[in-house]
TrEMBL record:
This is TRAP transporter small permease protein. It holds the Pfam family DctQ. It comes from the Bacteria. It is a multi-pass membrane protein. PANTHER family: 2,3-DIKETO-L-GULONATE TRAP TRANSPORTER SMALL PERMEASE PROTEIN YIAM, TRAP TRANSPORTER SMALL PERMEASE PROTEIN. Residues 24-146 form the Tripartite ATP-independent periplasmic transporters DctQ component domain. InterPro entries: DctQ, TRAP_DctQ. It comes from Billgrantia zhangzhouensis.
Amino acid sequence: MVNAFLFRLYALCGVVSGLCIVLIALVVLLRVVSRILGYYVPGLTEITGYLMAASGGFGMAYAFHKNSHIRVSMVIDRLGEKGHALLNLACLAMACLIVGYLASYLIDMTRVSYRFDDISSGDDRIKLWMPQSLVACGFAAFFVCLCHYLVMTLAEAVHVVSRRNGEGL
């Protein structure tokens, strides 16, 4: 039940990431058309940056779930089954720590921006907590994805070890 919910969450992350990319294309198109027509629309560069950061966070959760991220397998392929499992667990644990720190920092930054009513320094004068919350949610989802796969990998390793020791299924 939890796996099914999380898998749907990762699919939703892919949709949100794709929508951010479509919005980036629309913002760039708006910028081109407004320049041709002689109008200046403030904040389009900043909005594109916010959308790109949000797309990255949400996209990483989806890509990791679909196993479409880049893995350097030159070293891992040379290890035995036990070494492969240990290195995989170590890498997942390290990734959880790093992305967890990043996600907590982004959430805290968003909270502070909301509390102090921070406004961007650009021409758009947008309240910073709005785009920051998208970025923070994306990286929080990526953190959840990494932790989920770490737990699943640990559970699989425990299952394999217990089966080898004849402790049943």
